[in-house]
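Human:
Care to share another protein and its fold?

Assistant:
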Amino acid sequence: MTPPPNRAAGRLSISASLKPRELMTDTPRLKDAWSVRVLTLFPEAFPGTLGLSLTGKALEQGIWALETIDLRPFGQGRHKNVDDTPAGGGAGMVLRADVLGQALDMAAIGTPADRARWPVIYLSPRGKPFDQSMAQDWAKADGLTLLCGRFEGVDQRVIDHYAVQEVSLGDFVLTGGEIAAQALIDATVRLIPRVLGNHQSTQEESFSEGLLEHPQYTKPAVWEGHDIPEVLLSGHHGQISSWRKAMAERLTKERRPDLWRAYCAAHNRDPDEDQEL
């Protein structure tokens, strides 16, 4: 006799919920932990790489918290539509204002109204370029809300009404904002005390002082005929510090003239000095 089919092996039924989904819910959240809320059509994309390595460990320990808010349940009509054709015509689709408005209202529950304490960000190629100073400011805030766009973008009225800050990861276009959101979150979370363990490492890396980071070396002392610079093996910490600073300045001047000019202006230096640096 043939056994009846195992219905449990069939397609699972997934019900949408308007409640934000906190990831790593079986772990503690420390009091006043830095939090981020992500509005997305693809909540399953999170935590992604944020759940790995030191950021993932800190997430498990409750040092920071990550919540996703699925945009689909806010959709309109029988098919839960979240987008519609652009006003005035044109290709593609635009995320609806009424859908995003409801989602942003939910994301705002329990958060301070002061945007300095809780910025609301839309990942957009037309936004202000993301940099280390932004990550430093956000890490000092209580938390952050990120809106991940799709299709041709979002209704401008939402950006205006909610005073949403547009931020760009660079001069290129992604299919959606989820990858960019993870990059911004990672850059911010690693600056939260106790996440990396060694706070000094964040002070010595690229952009922390407006300079690119100096070259790094480790064992073996000789590899494929290439030696570690002798000064790094000298044990003279003063000389090592000076060498690293000089190399950081040289690399910044050669590779990022824009950063070099800004660094010189901040330190009252002539950007054209030290031609032999």
User: Anything to note?
Assistant: DSSP finds eight helices and ten strands in the chain.
